[in-house]
Structures
1.
Amino acid sequence: MSEAFLSVEAVSKTFAPRLSLGERIAAALGAPPAKRPLQAVREVSLEIRRGETLGLVGESGCGKSTLGRMIAGIAAPSAGAVSLDGDPVMRGGRKATTRVQTVFQDPFASLDPRMKVGDAIAEGPVAHGLVAKPQARAYVAGWLDRCGLDPAMADRWPHQFSGGQRQRVAIARALAMQPDLLVCDEPVASLDVSIQAQILNLLMDLRRDLGLTCLFVSHDISIVRHVSDRVAVMYLGRIVELGPAASVLARPAHPYSLGLLESAPRLSLDGRSTFRPIPGDVPSPLAPPPGCAFAPRCSLAQDACRAAPPPLSEVAPERFSACLRADVLTGRPPGQASHMSGA
Amino acid sequence: MSPPVLDVVDLTTEFALRGGGAARAVDGVSFSLARGEIVGLVGESGSGKSVTGFSLMGLIDPPGRVAGGSVRLNGAELAGMDAEGLRARRGREIAMIFQDPVATLNPLLTVGAQMRMALAAHARTPRRAADDRCAAALARVGIPAARDRLAAYPHEFSGGMRQRVAIAIALLHAPSVVIADEPTTALDVSVQAQILVEMRALAAETGLSLIWISHDLAVVSGFASRILVMYAGRVVEQGPAEAVLRAPRHPYTRGLIDSLPAAAKPGEPLRQIPGGAPSLGALPPGCAFAPRCPRAAGACRAAPPVETREGARAWRCLFPLEAGA
């Protein structure tokens, strides 16, 4: 049951700065670098189990999409490796499997405006021999129907679809490749609330019926809580907390997860506000603090937190936190003397 | 009770369509705003909530026009007022904040220069005094080292700080009404919460009245004292936030609340509203929500329902939900 289906091993992603000719000459002559590389993802290890949905949550710039793209085989890791069932997802900088497919946030950008949606859906499966060309039409019709669209829509152009319908097309196109793992990168972030529910229901139905494994990347905690079995919280390139969605989001073991939960607005029926902000801003990923990246905003931070990034370690069965003071949050017997009362 | 700061009656805004006819983006919107009050204007894309904001500001350009209704700001009628009169009030009595501060701030000018321009639009102020006022405005919205930041360019601020600059500019002349059009939608939740908390304190301290336009019921629920729900250009329900959210009378409001993931147990299907929003150019003759509504009957399709008022609440529905449901 708990075998690793997809495994991410010590993956990092660094974006090198784009240097002008002058800067490259200066660097060759030994001048100190004017621009620093941006480390979007730092030594992340995790696994996704067969059949589960892992929610990946964090704020903009935390590296969640970059991690999602490396898992999807779209971006090559700078270090570390991603493998599915023991086989690498990428080989030689190119995607090496069709078993992982992605649904992106913006269905307007992910469909070629000059290609009929039926052709866009058929393109991949035909090229990879999943279906013979003569049968492609029926095959596409089946997937459109499965995704709640009229099969006759195969002959329409992307601009003839609403946002919600386009996202259905994008889902149909990803599923037509018969993936085992579906990476959903903010699939409902640009949709209206009433349409959002339709797409989330569709994704949950398909996942169950097709036995899909899912990585669900989102900034929205309430959505992640709804669709995920386990959840990983990212902050400035690292996973700071990982565990079963229900327990992590009910009782976080990292101050950042707690802050994220408390600052997320929830529907309040008594008119009282339900959000409490995290003080300060996310530090620049170009110059992250030496220790825990959250320490400058954290009320629990001690000197040890500022020395080195705390590792992600097990704080309770199935629960992992990269906080030296997780015991304060979980209320577990403290490893060392603690004068803080439960948060 | 003191008279409302802003009183809107039957505001209607139309956009001429190619080939004749007009789309009503705002259709008979009425509400009033008390001093220090925060009203949440909620709706999905295309519901007319932003156009309502632009109409109140007198910022509708052809082919659009405010086709009818009355907007009284501090007692003065804005509908039909000439451009000069509007310009004298815009920024000084009524101001607007937009979703994208990158689009509202000039990337080539320092923040200080832009703020001094906004100041000079309504008041001649010596340079030193102007800088003092600008720095104070920045400090009030939580920008640290405000005086030094006047010399910084917009790109030197983070997204949240940039939106704070836009808010500071809107508040420069201490307007009585600020229309905020999804100002925190592009921001992270932790920063959004900071700004919401600051804006609420500001409204309580200074008596500023806010119209907070948002697609996010959850944001508005803990922030606004009154809620207006828009659908296809019409306010389909309005009332005190608590009452509207606890026991909505309009089926669309109910549908919006129920479709939030928080309304269902994790993993269970969400209650979705079937179908999609109608096009404003081709609205059904009756209630615009009828094609998606579980309660709709023949009468709903005949003519748009008129507003029913009951105390502080109002709705446009022939078959409203039970008061205590």
2.
Amino acid sequence: MSDAGQGVAASPRDPVREKVRELVPGIERLSLTYGAMDDFNSETDSDYTSYWRDWFISSRGNEYFCEIDEEYLTDRFNLTGLNTEVQYYQYALDLVTDVFDFDCDDDMREQIEKSARHLYGLVHARYIVTTRGLAKMLEKFKKSDFGKCPRVMCDSQPLLPMGQSDMANSSPVKLYCARCEDLYNPKSSRHAIIDGAYFGTSFHNILFQVYPIMLPPKTQRRYEPRVFGFKVHSAAALARWQADEREKLKDRLRGARIESGFEEDEAEAEEEDDDEEMEGDGFEGATVQQ
Amino acid sequence: MSSSSQVTESWISSFCGLLGHEYFAEVSEDFIEDDFNLTGLQSQVPMYKEALEMILDVEPEDDDDEEEEEEEDEEDDEILGDERPTAYRRASDRRHLRIASDLSVIESSAELLYGLIHQRYITSRPGIQQMAEKYELQHFGTCPRVHCNSTKVLPVGLKDSPGHETVKLFCPSCLDVYTPPNSRFQTVDGAFFGTTFPSLFFMTFTDLDIGSGIRNNPSSTAQALLQIQTETTKGTSTTPANVTSINGVAPHNLAPGIGAGNIYGPRIYGFRVSERAKSGPRMKWLRMKPADVTELDETRRYWENPPDDADRPHDDDLNMVDVAEGKSVDSRKKISARRKRTNGSGNGGGSPMDTNGVGAAG
């Protein structure tokens, strides 16, 4: 997680900037930079500073977001329907695209800020399933910007953000592990409050359809609850039943001549394990105690 | 001979108070002073004697004869009462005289020794009770898996010998292990908790309702909605209502976080991704559970189609499912064929495999 945002978190409301803006309307359009803005110039892909968006994606808690292209944001087609979802839509859009030029009191400004964040999130959900958006999110995925799977058997597989619903305000963002194909809650509470709709239910699946090479091999290794080296019966019986289901799946895939994607040479290893483990490290617990 | 002074904190409580040591229980001095509980540790821990003294905040007298005497006095009782080995006396005031380098070696030995004693202590009756209190207070955190809905977890080691793996967390709801969310626990050895503890814990406290959070406490409206949806579509469970135990576990406590309705199915724009797709689902088995848990009664299923040459065991020995007496018996053959037996009824010839009621005393 980057901490880069800490220093500039309050910048857009900075009084000097407000004053300058008052005196010279549209100053950002003239690509004038001052102070902290210098740092951001290199990162933007548009020909002038995307001040609000830079601030947004680099502020603490927003590490999951990628930067939306200027061209994408300014194409009205991409924003279809959002004007009914977002309050003060036009002002919010102006703020996001750095052409905000409206004198208002602090309360109003606060409202518009909130709307702008909401708007950015909703556009983000659409943007990340485009070719450019997918590529940006893939880079973040490769850097494990979204964290790693907490499941021990997944060996720190990088995660992807996802929503359980495409409707705003229905559930916070979750993280998807492609190795165990399960959903996890973000570790940090500052991520747990992000709306899941800003990522959507489809994005992570589309990413793997577009980049199948990024699919991790599935593992059959699993945790076996044991007491003094002996498997716990109820858990072991369930695990055997699940293994049967897995073999059925493999048979179905074999029948359809499709690769199952499971890690190799585990199948044989596991069969042997069942008996030999008892003599081997299965009893480790017991022997250590003697 | 009073145990520990009021002014200075004991080594044990200061160790448990360290950052990252939140999972540890405070092992009672009685437990440590019983040599039986320390059997075999001497060979695993360098500077064993000094380490033990450090843990107990005592220092030996100069002569070493008392070792033999103690061994004779040794009893197999788990708890010796407040009888302290006579050779030890308080010495925190003398400890600073030791050479510094020596001290740091002893300090790390003491931590290792304490961890290994801790592994044994938390499977003992007072220890598991102490851990139960910590569990109730959610000291070990909750499962990160979304469908486990913040089920409380327990610390576990993947190995019983130290130096292999750091501590992990076991979730009874999905029967899986997770890395603790905070990196400060990545310095804690898993062997200090051991492989046995969490499973033994849930076998001991069979009355705990593991799945209560999953059933009654949906943390958000979306999850509530999701639950309503899944419950109506899947018909949750077809387990006969009168089954009170399967393979030694109550059906509602058998991995409540998995099974139909708690499995993530990938979708794109609302359409399910086929399992034949390259990126299609392959791991659902890991979170599956039969709708009727009596399917997991393997012994019964095996003997329903017995091999020709086998001797069928006595009915009692097949009893891995417990059925509540008095309730209407399910019409299906599988169930009605079963001999009913109430939980823990005193029929002396109980199956040796029957683990039901094991935890009743604990």
3.
Amino acid sequence: MIFEKLQEMLVNQLGIDKDKVTPDADIIKDIGADSLDIVEMLMDVENEWGITVDDDAVKDLHTIGDIVKYIENNKK
Amino acid sequence: MIIFAKYGEYDRRELIDECLTRYLETLKLTKLEGEVKEEKHRNEKPYFKDYPFVRFSVSHSGSLVVVAMAETEVGIDVEEIKEKPYGRIVERNFTAGEAAEVKDLESFLKVWTKKEAYLKLTGDGLSGLRSSDVSKPLFYDGKPVESTTLAIFDGYVGTVVAESQPIIFVQLD
């Protein structure tokens, strides 16, 4: 459910193919997100799931799967 | 410093290989023409080496990718000029000094790319977003670094941050 929702957000916000958004997809290298896309996406994630993405945590978020796991671990 | 730019699809490995090759070729040319002085006294490594100490930074947005290569640490960021609600980004991530420089989309992107470029130079990346302040003089490794706005790519805004040095632009096919 989290993955599908995140996928939908990326398709709508970044306008990328749904097929490109897989759990192993690297946000920068495979999905082609630039720095602004990433910050906007993280802000949307924070709003959607009511969480805060720590500045430190950002370093470890490379793939879609990493983000899904982060949301799972931090949402209320 | 050489900044390479390419429009369209690219393979990251191939791109970086091409840039490195061209960068080294360019350096060899200047060496042969004798325009570069030996700067041995400035650092421990002699300036003329077979394989110079190369630093680089990559950024892409939209259909543009840029690679900056230099012998000093360097950070570069480009953003496509596209309407977006930047207010909330400023509110959540910019310092008061930075926010004061934002008047419209283009000035927002100038500050944004300057922030990003500096964070890429230091290696902090996005995790340093809120703790950095590019409205003040910037330093890295104890030395001042300069930011240069890149306004030569139509439809894009960019910034490169590094120690003061000449910049050469090369567009790749």
4.
Amino acid sequence: MSVDNELVLRVQEGDKKAFDVLIMKYQQRIVHVITGFVHDPVEALDVAQETFIKAYRAIPNFRGDSAFYTWLYRIAINTSKNYLTARARRPPATDVDAADATNVYEAPELKEFETPESSMLSNELELVIHQAIEGLQEDTATAIKLRELEGMSYEEISQVMECPIGTVRSRIFRAREAIDKKIQEVMGEGEQR
Amino acid sequence: MTMNDSELLSALVDGELEGDALDQALLLLSTDDKAREQFQRFQRGSDSLRGYSIPAQAIDLSSNIAAEISSDQAFDVNVEKSKEPKANVTFMPQWFWQQALGMAIAASVGALAVVSVMTQQPQSTIDSIPVMANVENTTIMAVSHEPKTSNRWTVTEPEVQDRLNTYLLDHNEYAGVSDVFSNARVIAYEVE
């Protein structure tokens, strides 16, 4: 059973803290997806909040036929469209597939809605992150690339890199720490601007 | 927060925890604010690597949502399961079951009658076959009109007779009441 399904099961059994983890895990993506419909960042946060509340109330009906994120994504899209309809605004003509939404590189429609500021910060972050990865030891860089860019599981990475799963976990953690440090630096500068 | 805890949070971002390790990570997140911050930073890094744009300020919807859903009752999977739709059973009206029961009784009694006739007439069938007799130049069709055995039931014991009478009376009355006369055969027995 995936961690998401395990967390959903715990929520269904009455553990609200498990839902808190799901929020922390997906809020970034959901806000990003909603921003594609609702251009105002503050409104997007409101719609994202409504999305999660709807998801929480509907979670007893979630049967795991699809991935939790796909289900959540659909709720986000419907909530955004309803929000725009209520505001008598036209929802975008083009829709983004849930599978594409997991990777923005494959969903250029979402890029169109970025503001110049967020786009600049995004580009800067992207550059800094890739520089951070290039600065890592080769094994660490390979592990994080296989995980984040290729979407491999720890087991698959351990087979590719011919090392134990524990080592994969440590390498990915070290890479994350380095990336996090760089992001903090950029975001700190961004807040000062 | 130890290095091991941080590594645990990194593995949670990747969805690579289960069992006790997952319990440990969830406990950490619910009790340690620094752990929450670090988990969200790791998640943000992962999201940005996958191409999601990161706003200038970190997003944290969890506290607002927690406040919103605090008044909601916690789910209980047992309660929810009891609300699941059961098998799609269509309840038929009473008249339907009355007619169906009448027809079933009629059919069973009819079948019983046929079986009894078949068991009581093994020899008579041969005798009742038309026989062609050739008498000089005249062809005469001789047909046996009288079977040697009756197809009616004979009951000798009074107690059995009473029970059978009651049964047949009930059956015939039921067939009449439930409008299945057209389908049901009115059964009778008597000593000829």
